[in-house]
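A sample copied in:

***
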Amino acid sequence: MRIVLVGPPGAGKGTQAQFIASHLSIPKISTGDIFRANVSGGTELGRQAKEYMDRGDLVPDEVTIAMVRDRLAEDDARDGFLLDGFPRNVPQAETLKKILAEWDTRLDIVLELVVDEDEVVRRLSGRRTCDKCGRIWHVDFDDKQDDICDDCGGRLFQRDDDKEEVVMHRLEVYRHDTAPLVQFYADENILVGIDATGPVEEVTKRALTALRPLERD
């Protein structure tokens, strides 16, 4: 099965991608993993990407797409994959469609994790990270009464990218760049929306229920 997972920051894409890919025995492919593999492996594409990343710039579409194409051509992705974080915009989606068409295949489904923006802000701005062990706690979900890590005694702090104003900016970028993918894939008749609120296990159950009609015996 060939799946794309979309949704705003804080929707739980990374967590759900891991569970779904494991259930279907297909590789979870994220742009972050691809970037790290190419950079650490010293590939030509990795060297190109690193130049942009070191300057704090976005890696251009053509470099990202080339990396994704190489990854999808690997043996473990031959019978299916789950893409998390790609495509990020309509041009990337159009290119992905062309790549798959060259291989005489196409996406089976696009799962959109649907969550209210207020909930996204609550999820992300409430996160606190331990400065010693790196564990992430949540001021609401973990019922924390202090700023001390229960695991190691480290001090909890709020990362810059979890601050409310930064989260709001990330949502604005998502609406502008990535949200149009929803309409693109709706027009392709392969979009299915999944309610991403509630316990992780419940969200996973909803996603697997949506995928069940597409599973091959």
Remarks:
- The chain has nine helices and eight strands.
- Residues 161 and 167 are 7 Å apart (CA to CA).
- The chain has one domain: 2-214.
